[in-house]
């Protein structure tokens, strides 16, 4: 089912949680709403589900204007951050609940519940109670419960936020595979960019209630539309710079920037892996610290007239020879983007 | 126990003192009651407790207490529901009113109700015109008992309702459940043990209630005379045997109630642990 959201706005008192958000989600895709906490992404999800009412704007589910349709009648699957399983029902009764309330005959509902529990890898746990399951298992029960009534749209609010890091990694891969298998249009909310980029077909970056950018993970990473997006995804350096033509200067540092962007005073955003530096006594920067992070090395340096920068290298990079605290280094910017310095962050 | 913590003479004296205190305070009076009640043999005991007035009093006390317990389970749960879920303007005041009956001496509660529903008061006259007698009648007893037991279910259910995760309710709604199905699945299992135990506590309280009832019930033997008031009357008129027999009846009711409470708690507790 195609989902269309038009000019959605929502206030809580004086706080603008959602500001004029418009986007479309194609049938069958898996989309991430990515943003820092408090950015309004969960509110957007709750409006889609009918759990919150927008002050303005419309929600189209397929060809139906669902803005005023009660949550009960939307037939949407929703997975809550803290599972929200029914504590007093068994795993199986949790999963079949959405079928039972629709009057599906009990044997049929039971069969479907068992099918879904097998699908999410929890066959054999039907008679357990939620309190007897691990966090990851509970989350999968919650997913099976949401999928049981065969919703046309599945919404997931920070689905892996409450499980530990290792389980989260597994659940991500598993969710992607499950989505490819079931094919239900899905939107999930996350503040974790790795999660958004590794799982979703498209990513919508939300900031201060507004939509900053939407695109494929590659588009968001390679062509961040705003300074906020550029800073939010990946480890970045932000330098005050001046742009003339296609060249940006930040102190002694020079960088090529795409033409057609802002000129004059800008914020120059450079990812830590888009910086090369090597030992050169005639260079423009001084190394401050070298930190080893497993298979990568992070170099902190100070550029003459521009301030601190951070660069990342593979541990065995030949460029690192002679790079040590106090050493002078040359710096090359392989990719950078300039944003008008008045633009919001 | 380590040698350092072994009881010395002081501890031994304390131990003996406490045992004596509790036995003298509880066990001896209890034994005396049973002894006096059964002194003239079982036949006399059953004769006294089975006398029409005593039997009617025990029966009246039993059914009014059970009725009030059942009403409290429903009305108390509804009251807790409103207090927890709606931001009423006078919510704090309403909450304080719920607690007030515990602070008011029950005799005063009875006086309040007698004045309001008495034959000279407006409410009493209006109800009389409709053919409903409250004061000196059974509705007055039920009303007084409801008054003095108001907080039991409300305060038992309230914290449990407040701690239910709103997401659980939202999950039920998104899955298509109506209000009744949502209540049955999300709320009822969470609050039922507390509602029942609050109801049982109100029954216990109602079995022994005296102060409010003696004022409002009229105490007509065989019609509005409750067991506690009957016992009081027998003591006043120098019939300790009849007083003791009926007291033993009340005692048996209270112990049976305790057994029920224990069974309910055990069952619901076991279900929670699953």
Detailed description of the structure:
The complex is a heterodimer of chains A (345) and B (274). Chain A has eight helices and 20 strands. In chain A, the strands form four sheets. Chain A has a six-stranded mixed sheet with strand order 6-7-8-3-9-10, with helices on both faces. Chain B has one domain: MetI-like (MetI-like fold), CATH 1.10.3720.10. Chain B is globular. Chain B starts with 8 loop residues before the first helix and ends with a helix.
Q: Main β-sheet of chain A: number of strands, strand sense, barrel status?
A: 6 strands, mixed
**Strand order, sheet with most strands of chain A:** 6-7-8-3-9-10
Order of helices and strands of chain B: HHHHHHHHHHHH
Share of β-strand residues of chain A: 35-45%
Order of helices and strands of chain A: EEEHEEEHHHEHEHEEHHEEEEEEEEEE
Strand proportion of chain B: under 5%
CATH architecture heading of chain B: Orthogonal Bundle
Mean pLDDT of chain A: 90
The main β sheet of chain B shows up as: none
Biggest chain pair contact, residues each? A-B, 28 and 19 residues
* Structure classification of chain A: alpha+beta
**Total beta strands of chain B:** 0
- Assembly type of the chains comes to heterodimer
Helical fraction of chain B: over 70%
Radius of gyration of chain A: 24 Å
CATH top level assignment of chain B: Mainly Alpha
Low-confidence stretches of chain B: 270-274
CATH superfamily of chain B: MetI-like
Annotate the secondary structure layout.
The complex is a heterodimer of chains A (345) and B (274).
Chain A (H helix, E strand, L loop, with lengths): L2 E10 L2 E11 L4 E5 L6 H9 L6 E6 L2 E2 L10 E4 L11 H10 L5 H14 L15 H13 L5 E5 L7 H18 L2 E6 L2 H7 L2 E6 L2 E6 L1 H6 L4 H6 L3 E9 L2 E4 L2 E4 L7 E8 L3 E5 L5 E9 L2 E8 L3 E8 L13 E6 L3 E4 L5
Parallel strand pairs in A: 3-8, 3-9, 6-7, 7-8
Antiparallel strand pairs in A: 1-2, 1-4, 4-5, 9-10, 11-12, 11-14, 12-13, 14-20, 15-19, 16-17, 16-19, 17-18
Chain B lengths: L8 H30 L2 H10 L1 H34 L5 H13 L2 H12 L4 H8 L8 H25 L3 H9 L4 H30 L2 H6 L10 H10 L3 H34 L1
Helix pairs in contact in B: 1-12, 2-12, 3-7, 3-9, 3-11, 3-12, 4-7, 5-7, 7-9, 8-9, 9-12, 11-12
